[in-house]
Amino acid sequence: MQPMNIDTLVHVVAIWILPLVIAIVFHEIAHGWVASALGDPTARRLNRLSLNPVEHVDPVGTLLVPLGLAIAHLPVFGWAKPVPVVAGQLRNPRRDMVIVALAGPAMNLLLAGLLGAALVLGLRLNKRLKTLRDSHDSFAVAVRELNAAAQRAEQGLADLRAATDEAVETLADRIEKGRELAAKLERLIVVAPREVKEAPDPRHESQEKRLGMLLAAAREGRGRPELRPESRPELRPAALSTPVRPRANPEDDLFVDPPLRMSLGGRP
């Protein structure tokens, strides 16, 4: 058998001894009260109808025996001092003694019923408390999950805000670069026609060069008389026998090529 400590002793007294004392006290009060109601005032005169346990406790049957049985882990039972009943003072001694004897067990049954109802009520209350506790735990879990979701949402918003700021900066940079590129294109559009107008046309240069050569050859022929037919006698008879075909003027070559047509920008 394990040694008895203070916690075990308190448990035994609260679970076994105290209910036993209450049951014994009410048992004896029931005997005395029924006897007094049936005409025997003995219990009333001896103060046995009192709720004070001292008036009913038997040191051996109420304290020692139940305590020893409880410590030994055996079924607990006990008894109290019997209530004195004078059968001659009852109205119907034979019948009333039976009623007085049954009053004690009836009180015990009544106490058992009340205790059972209290246990049922306690079980229902415990069930409701357990449901309430589970609901509280579920609510606490839901609150924790909600807090976690709120933290995740806040972190997501922070990430989205950072990504948005970065995208805005990138877009602003690209817009600025696009503006610079558009400005460059506008400058090129303004400058390009001028360069096209100022740029010389190679075909025009070649035609001018050819015209200059023809003019130079014509001037050279005019400046050298020995090249003329009348200044060369050896060529004169032949010239007389055959009709002399007039020599083409070098300046006539200027009109051999088709006329030039100038267009805007210096191009033919």
Task: Tell me what the structure shows.
This protein has 268 residues and is mostly helical. It has a domain at 6-133. The chain is 68% helix and 0% strand. The chain has six helices and no strands. α1 runs antiparallel to α3 and α1 (6-37) crosses α4. The protein is rod-shaped, with a radius of gyration of 70 Å.
What's the short version?
The chain has 268 residues and is mainly alpha-helical.
Question: Can you give keywords for this protein?
Answer:
mainly alpha, rod-shaped, 268 residues
Strand count: 0
Low-confidence stretches: 235-242, 253-257, 262-268
Q: Which bin fits the share of residues in helices? A: 55-70%
The Rg value, from CA coordinates, equals 70 Å
As a percent range, the share of strand residues is: under 5%
Secondary-structure element order, as H and E?
HHHHHH
Tell me the number of helical segments per DSSP (H or I, 4 or more residues long): 6
Alpha carbon gap, first and last residue: 132 Å
Based on helices, strands and strand pairing, what is the structural class?
mainly alpha
Shape verdict: rod-shaped
Mean of the pLDDT scores? 77
Largest sheet: none
Outline the fold blueprint:
Layout lengths: L5 H32 L4 H4 L13 H13 L21 H106 L3 H21 L13 H6 L27
Helix pairs in contact: 1-3, 1-4
